[in-house]
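Hi C.,

You asked whether I'd gotten around to modeling the 385-residue construct. I have! Everything is below, sequence then structure, no commentary in between.
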Amino acid sequence: MKIGITCYSSYGGSGIVASELGLELAARGHDVHFICATLPLRLSPRPDHLYFHEVEATNYTLFDAAPYALALAVRMAEVALEYELDLLHVHYAIPHSVSAFLAREMLKETRPVPFITTLHGTDITLVGTDRSYLPITRFAIRQSDGVTAVSEYLRAETCREFDICTDTPIEVIPNFINSEAYRRVENPALRATFARDDEPVLVHVSNFRAVKRPTDCIRIAARLSRHLPVQLVMVGDGPERAQAQWLARQKGIADRVHFVGKQPDIATYLSIADVLLLPSESESFGLAALEAMACEVPVIASCTGGLPEVVTPGETGFLAEVGDIQAMAEHAERILTDAALRARMRTACRRIAVERFNANDIVARYEAYYTRILDNFTVRRRGGA
């Protein structure tokens, strides 16, 4: 197949999943064309069968801001026509599905091409805080030739928020990991830069937005440090980093909290961890939890969103209510002080990640879904002819 993929190019989960999907599809021989503002970070260097087409939104004095959604629609149509794409697959509804709809309409008389929208979470929950997006988002989702969501939670939330599931079926295809790229590889030298052999290592990975509650990680580490010589490694960057650094100083544990910024190889840092902290306000899936599990790291997370679909309490980690710092600290201490429990959890983490969320199986589900959407699109076109 020839597939066009559009996503945000940052470290956010939707861009990561789209990038990994593109890499897997290209490895299977599909021609994958990324149509984005910038090259997604995980696509450098680019393998065979994977191409990048930059979207440039020209600034005119007439506009307060460059009309990116329109520029994206034009670029989608151009690439689809020039490279004879079979379908467009957009990740994150706002504004990508709107642009894909416009591109499909532009190509109606020349090269009709269907589009699939994959919902990732904040593209849906954003509507809850800004209702002005609801009509256009609902329209774009309903106009999609196919719609997928990364968790059962997100599918249900979309149905509830938009009241569309009676006429717009949503396929749940979960996020996945490449089990070869995400596996535990011990790195004593890296670990030694943060902790002694007798010091447990906690890790947090996120984009440091408020919804990820990175300051809760500082509070958890502060509670644990009363009993255990823990070290906390904070991977990522974003608007809450300064607040987290200030809180670490206020709690008197600044020397035990290490901010390492954005890292291209997350598995390397997960491989030195004893526990992952993911105290998010909301997670549509929890990709960081899955990546940690693949690297044999038990997860302490909030019982919210799609996380219960990834983390099994007592088997691959523990869940607690959002903001329950005491419970999360107690769960972490239990794992860190019980070597037998920690060993069982590490084994279970790897097994479940590989059995339930491996790339081969999940990408095969996307391929089958693409085929079904293409067949349905062809049937509808013939029926309307």
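If it helps when you're writing up: The mean pLDDT is 92.

Thanks,
B.
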